[in-house]
Amino acid sequence: MKITKATIKSFIRKNPDNLFINVKSSFDGMIDGCAYYNDGFKKAEKDTDNIRNTLGVSGAWFVNNSRDYFNPYNKDGFIGYEVTNCCGSFILAIKN
């Protein structure tokens, strides 16, 4: 099964209260590149400022136009999806 942005949207919509996010890296203008993090999974918070790029999840960032890459994730007691793009990478998951 191919994972698409619609798959991720559905996953977020079906799991609003059980959703966790692990931001692995994000774009940092101060270094003109991506900064890497090792903070682990945190309960996902809502973001209503930029729904088109966050899909309502704080810490998530989708660049859209087929420039986001999706992989299944099933490790460390979490199951979900890893998202990678030019602005960084993060994992959206629920506890397994």
Structure overview:
The protein has helices at 5-14, 51-54, and strands at residues 20-28, 33-36, 42-43, 69-75, 78-85, 88-95. Helices cover 15% and strands 40% of the residues. The mean pLDDT is 94. Strand 4 (69-75) and strand 5 form a beta hairpin. The chain has one domain (5-95). The protein is mainly beta.
| Share of residues in helices | 10-25%
Mean pLDDT equals: 94
Largest beta-sheet characterization: 6 strands, antiparallel
Helix-strand makeup class: mainly beta
Number of strands: 6
The end-to-end distance, rounded to whole angstroms, is 20 Å
The tally of helices reads: 2
Beta-strand portion reads 35-45%
Q: Give start-end ranges of low-pLDDT stretches.
A: none
The domain count comes to 1
Global geometry: globular
H and E string: HEEEHEEE
Work out the radius of gyration: 13 Å
Jot down its keywords:
2 helices; globular; 6-stranded antiparallel sheet; mainly beta; 96 residues
Helices and strands, with pairings:
Blueprint lengths: L4 H10 L5 E9 L4 E4 L5 E2 L7 H4 L14 E7 L2 E8 L2 E8 L1
Short description:
The chain is mainly beta and 96 residues long. It has helices spanning 5-14, 51-54; strands at 20-28, 33-36, 42-43, 69-75, 78-85, 88-95. 15% of the residues lie in helices and 40% in strands.
